[in-house]
Amino acid sequence: MLAVSLVGCSAWGFILLSSVSSATALNDDGLSLLALKSAISVDPTRALHSWLESDHEPCGWSGVACRGGRVTAVSLSNLSLEGYLPSEMSLLSALENSIGLITGLIALDLSYNNLSGPVPVAIGGLTSLVHLDLSSNYLDGPLPLSIAAFCNLAGVLNLSYNAFSGEIPPEYGNLPVVVSLDLRHNRLTGEIP
After folding, report:
1. Which DSSP letter does residue 28 get?
2. Looking at residue 134, which CATH number applies to its domain?
3. Sorted alphabetically, which SUPFAM superfamilies does this protein's record hold (predicted)?
4. DSSP 8-state code for residue 56
């Protein structure tokens, strides 16, 4: 019955139906990144222009690296992007793939942009992160406690040159020794625990 009604539809209706079905083909990683794209109000270099909801996966997108069909790194540094960090970024967290390996986002570099607002609490869902660089933006509010709980961090945790304020949470003292923590040029008080 549906096929008969589609035959009777105008070409416009068929195109609309095709558009809806292709949009649902994008995997969860891609949908998470499209939330980031939607949160970006200014993209002067058109860096996110290749990020299309009609794609099956985001692995061919500019600034995105994948392994086994999952996003493992997002590098959008120094692009003058303006906007905010959406909570949907947490959907890039580790998931078990079909062969039992844990995959997920291990590197996120959004440094040297013009991102503003607080870091969403949901960023704590990115438990696979090894490298996080949000430096040189306009991010504000308190330092997120969830970032200090990342047990896989092994490289850089750079939150410098933002507008974070308040006390440095004691949880930041529990970061592994191998983590290079940079909190310079914020409005933070107290000592690094």
Report:
1. H
2. 3.80.10.10
3. L domain-like
4. S
Q: Domain of 74?
A: 27-189
Asked if residue 56 belongs to a domain, the reply is yes
Does residue 95 lie in a domain region? yes
What's the number of domains the chain is made of? 1
Distance CA 134, CA 111 (A): 5
Burial of 97 per CB tally in 10 Å (0-12, 13-18, 19+): middle
Q: Residues 111, 113, 118, 120: what is their CA dihedral angle, to the nearest 10 degrees?
A: -60
Contact status, residue 187 vs residue 165, Cβ threshold 8 Å? yes
CA-CA distance, 155 to 45, in Å (whole number)?
A: 28
Q: What phi and psi values does residue 76 have, to the nearest 5 degrees?
A: -125, 45
Using the predicted structure, report yes or no on whether residue 48 has a pLDDT greater than 70: yes
Cα 158 from Cα 125, distance rounded (Å): 18
Question: Taking 50 as the threshold, does the pLDDT of residue 119 lie above it?
Answer: yes
Q: Which phi and psi angles does 160 have, rounded to 5°?
A: -70, 165
Task: Check residues 23 and 125 and name the one with the higher pLDDT.
Answer: 125
Q: Which structure tokens are listed for 118? A: 């607080």
The band of 127, judged by pLDDT with boundaries at 50, 70 and 90, is: confident
Q: Confidence band (pLDDT; 50, 70, 90) for 24?
A: low
